[in-house]
Amino acid sequence: MALDKFTIGRRYAKALFELAESKQALDDTYQELLGIRQIFTENEDLGNILTDMRLSLAEKKPIIDSLKQQFSPLMQTFLQMVFDYKRMNDILFMVDYFEEMYDKQNKIIRAEVITAIALNTAQQDKLSAQIAQRFDASHVQITSTVDPDIIGGVIVHANDKVIDGSIKTRLTRIKALLLNR
Amino acid sequence: MSIKAEEISALIKQQLEHYDDQLVVDEVGTVTYVGDGIARAHGLDNVMSNELLEFSNGSYGVAQNLESNDVGIIIFGRFDDIREGDQVKRTGRILEVPVGEELIGRVVNPLGQPIDGLGEIKTTKTRPIEFKAPGVMQRQSVFEPLQTGLKAVDALVPIGRGQRELVIGDRKTGKTSIAIDTIINQKGQNMICVYVAIGQKESTVKNQIETLRKYGAMDYTIVLTAGPSEPAPMLYIAPYAGSAMGEEFMYNGKHVLIVFDDLSKQAAAYREISLLLRRPPGREAYPGDVFYLHSRLLERSAKLSDKLGGGSMTALPFIETQAGDISAYIPTNVISITDGQIFLESDLFYSGTRPAIDAGASVSRVGGAAQIKAMKKVAGTLRVDLASYRELESFAQFGSDLDAATQAKLNRGRRTVEVLKQPLHRPLPVEKQVLILYALTHGFIDAVPVDDIARFQSELFAFFDSNHKDLLDTIHNTGNLPDEKDMDAAINSFMSGFSATGQDHAEADDQADDAKSGTN
After folding, report:
1. pTM value?
2. Cross-chain Cβ contact A170/B21 below 8 Å
3. Cis before B219? omega within 30
4. Measured distance CA(A71)–CA(A25) in Å, rounded
5. Which among B182, B191, B219, B397 has most CB atoms closer than 10 A?
6. What is the predicted ipTM?
7. Shortest CA gap B68–chain A (Å)
8. Which residues pair with residue B27 across a beta bridge?
9. Catalytic residue selected from B279, B365, B383, B390
10. Which one of B13, B17, B18, B24 would you mutate to disrupt binding with A, by most A Cβ within 10 Å of its Cβ?
């Protein structure tokens, strides 16, 4: 059975992570991977083009070469290998899993925060301190979105967990309580 | 009556007082695949096997496969509005169904929701659908009879309370009729019946419910149905949900009869789910744990020890065979799990022997202990006699000259088959079964022409009802056979008054019969 994209992402990312760790180039590699993620999200088809069987190697070579040249030697070999094994369309999963491992090592929590009105800096700091305490992290990165639909309060998504303190949810729960459901 | 505004606000105030505002932390995953009643979700790292999950559209599912990257989920309810990328939430609970007295007389789906249009069912209790079967110390052996009201079953393959007796046969051989007649006969027997219809046509189920209602059997029956139009997960959980409903009564010291109609369709539904969940297929494409699927279900039917209230749950699982092939995978599995089987044959059915029970292939491994003494006495050798008659019958087709003993055997056998025939929805109380079998085994019927046996039987019952009620009552109350002299005298006095349509020609009829069977 063909491996699924999550497994592929995990295997490649783990190898890269361990190699970068032994070369003490974790932070640099991570920054470079963020660059790769940006390139691949901006050019959605890039991954598919680089693995497309209908294109000849000669056609793909200039693309991969121009992609490679801006990175460090370690990243260049990584990209070349992923390209040779025709896994370029799964590269974002590798970046994702690398990020996960990197976050785990540095105790970073990525939290998505939804509020009805935009948070000011003081509120954000307070919130990240709270999240850091709750999830036992040393650093919290907040992505803030504003959704007036939730009326008030805050919803935090982090680590596959949802902490829902929005007014909208509370109102639905009161409604259910009053209707005896 | 006008509603006072302040009363409502007072009520709301009171309810709001109990509203404690807790911050809930939910663990969620993301749907990566959905279709055919199953979904896969990424995330949900801490989910447990068989945990109930909630989708963002309000549907519920159960975690089945826990794999390194994703979780395989079977969905109960709508899945057409679940999309890739939707959230699925852990609930920390396992699937439960409502149970209790309130369900009696209702028609529900496998989630315990009413589908008979009679309004909400106000139950107070629930039970998990998967429940560990009682262990060795919690059981006792089967000793009370479960009267099906069918002569052929009660005499040949008796069923005890707490037994699991398989009913197996091709399509259209009267399997469901056995179940319905048995349920009808439980009236006033202190029994609660659960009829679980799995993948049965909605029109058929409707007919069964109407029949049960007509005979007043819905007063003590729960009908649980998962129709063929429901997704496979519903069919898969239906028997477990039915068992949970029955268990509630069993653990409260009551007697329950549960009918699974039929388990082959449940196995097919489980095969569908398993293949979609990418579990490796085995023999006949069933997954590896299809034996456990049925064994853990049927093991829940038991006779509980007196310490636990002595309740019982008797199971009548059904299996539909293809062209009488009982050596297929599912039939052999269930035969080995159950305490015996009632084998129905289409040849017998179409030749007019109804119920079409094959006496040779049908057995009951524990029911004999539960038979009342009187029945044991009159039916003791019936099964063997019938089997030897079937053997002789095919043998006698070749020869024309038969000795008197063989003639007598054939004669008796033909009458035995005739006596064991029984019309639909006409269950007989045990004392009358004993009476007619007594008359048969003591040779009273040997002189009655075969065509007259049905009439002989009904007139005999009427005669005893009006003239010898005491004898019937003795059997009913003590379970013992009355003095043989009294029985013989009573039957003889009836025989003297019985004028068969062809009494004078009995001999001639018999010869005609012999000739017929000889040429057949």
Report:
1. 0.87
2. yes
3. no
4. 13
5. B182
6. 0.75
7. 8
8. A161
9. B365
10. B24
Q: Where do the H-state alpha helices sit in B404-483? A: 404-420, 430-441, 453-467, 469-478
* CB-nearest partner of B15 from A157, A163, A177: A177
- Residue pair B29/B87 in contact by the 8 Å Cβ criterion: yes
Q: What is the full per-residue pLDDT of chain B (520 aa) written as tens digits?
A: 556 667 777 777 777 777 766 777 889 999 999 988 899 999 898 999 999 999 999 899 999 999 888 899 999 988 899 999 999 999 999 999 999 999 999 999 999 999 999 999 999 999 999 999 999 999 999 999 999 999 999 999 999 999 999 999 999 999 999 999 999 999 999 999 999 999 999 999 999 999 999 999 999 999 999 999 999 999 999 999 999 999 999 999 999 999 999 999 999 999 999 999 999 999 999 999 999 999 999 999 999 999 999 999 999 999 999 999 999 999 999 999 999 999 999 999 999 999 999 988 899 998 788 899 999 999 888 888 888 888 888 877 776 678 888 888 888 999 999 999 999 999 999 999 999 999 999 999 998 999 999 999 999 999 999 999 998 999 999 989 988 999 999 999 999 888 877 554 444 444 444 444 444 4
Rounded-to-10 torsion of CA B195, B197, B202, B208:
-30
User: What three-state secondary structure class fits A71?
Assistant: coil
Interchain CB contact of A165 with B (< 8 Å): yes
CB-CB contact of B304 with B142 (8 Å): no
Burial of A45 (0-12, 13-18, 19+ CB in 10 A): exposed
Cα distance from B27 to chain A (closest Cα, Å)?
A: 4
Interface probe, candidates B69, B70, B71, B87, chain A, greatest A C-beta count within 10 A = B69
Length of chain B in terms of residues written: 520
**B365 is annotated as an active-site residue:** yes
Residue A163: list chain B partners with CB under 8 A.
23-26
Q: Check A161 against B15: CB less than 8 A apart.
A: no
